[in-house]
User: Fold this.
Amino acid sequence: MGRGLPLWSGITLCLLLPAWAFWSSTSETMPGSIAGLDAGNTPGLLRQGLWGSIGSFMLIAATWKGSRAGYLFANRDRSWLSTRLDSAVGGAFALVVGGVFAAAIALLGLAAGVEFASALGPAQVGQAFGKEHALHGQSLVLVSATPDNAMEAAWIVGDAKERLDYVASKDVPAPQLSFMPTSLAGDGPSALITISAARIADGKAVAEQTTSLTVRVRGTRRVLLPIPEGSGQLLITVRHGEDGPPLRLSGEHSALLLPRASHHLASLALWQHAFLWIAGAGAIALGLGARLGAGLGMSLALAIQVAGLGPAAGTYLGGSVWLDVLATAGQGFVPSSWTAPLVMGFGLQVVIGTLLLASALRIQAGKGRAS
Amino acid sequence: MSKMRAVAVLGVAAGLFAMGLSQTERASRETSSWLGPFAPIAAQVQWVRAEQAIQHGFPGRAIDFMESAIDLNPKSGPGWMTLANHLGLYLASAEAGWTMEVRVAWLESALDVTHRGQKWARHPEELSFHRGMLLLSHARLSEPLEWGDSPTALWQDAATAFSEAAELGHIGGEAAQAFALEQL
Assistant:
């Protein structure tokens, strides 16, 4: 079997990959939808699809391999363990770290493959931008032409890391603010919207440090507004034209975009998040597999990751963050990097996995000595 | 690897390949995502997140999640209906706090969603019927929306939507149309 495996795996992959591409191919998108806006962004959608689908397979594979390896390591040869394992925690940690490295290398291979695939297709044009964070304002911003409704909406945006600061230069592209106004009339009548960003000094907007643009919106449209030169907080103002249907601004798509060197950095960011997600799941699967058996260990490890798709646990386990990161890549932007809670969650899974594995090793080593 | 196993692997791979080819035409109109069979699963996750956003008081974020779920799985009729309900019942309600003009715009937005969904969903007649139900829900209020030129415009438009549903084969379309016409 050993010699034939690479050949047959290769043939299988050669047949599966085109099938996947055909299955997922698209020639038409919904007018007025966000997917419709992103339809021209083939490399971004390709990255999203390949990372999303193969990443899901890899999560399942990592939990299965992890739980099986943990089970075998702790149970296969008790007498060997009892004589050679001085420190159960050390041995368990070595195995967990090995698993983490294996996941990192496998995901690097995936990143290289995805970028190679995206390089073969149509090139992604324009300046690369990283989507840093949503502009924390109201959940639903709505502007309307009628006098008794809000014609104007405004909020102040600050950034503790001073990423909103910008000094104009020929070599450095300006950071942008991204908005996605949507007409409540769908593809019916259009309406004008004016979006302005002004620096604030002494509590007032500075006219000289203001950028503004007016666009007509029918359906949904993505709008990018350069950040005005200067530093400090920004006053964002959204004003409706004199007629036309009300317009709403999507909170999810109101974001700060920072210039990046290359679109290919998207896969690096996706690798970072996939690594924390999959390697963390694999680490905990090692411990659970050692204690509970391969099947139950894998099931429980996957259940933990499903729980991680929720907003609270997802901040630490990475599932819900992974979905957001994939969506950002699909829009053609470079997702943001690791966050502290994600790294903490990963570390916690490694520690728990190691301790579970070590406890299983101790139990089995004890049995080995006894027998 | 034994010959039998090799043939089995090749057979399964060839089967998947053929299935992929047969899906090409249909899939080209289903989704713009490259997530393949994972797309409906990802859509389900987005629906759960939308529900959580509503419960935590973020109706705008809920719309984003719902639209994302529909982009992932546009053939799901209930998905289109849920988004239409959020816009046409929740946001267009008096309790949401908007003025009459904006409430009317939210309902128009919901009706637009049902129209768009008809081109994608497996059962377009259900969306047509649902459009009638949205209009009817507002028509039956003690203080109905200021809709169209006459006070009975909501009932009239509901009857039109039910008639369209009946033409598309909805089992309750005719009865609902008759009921709406009785109110005129």
Q: What stands out?
A: Confidence is low (pLDDT under 50) at residues 25-33 of chain A. The longest helix of chain A spans residues 42-75. Residues 30-124+263-370 of chain A form one domain. The longest strand of chain A covers residues 204-217.
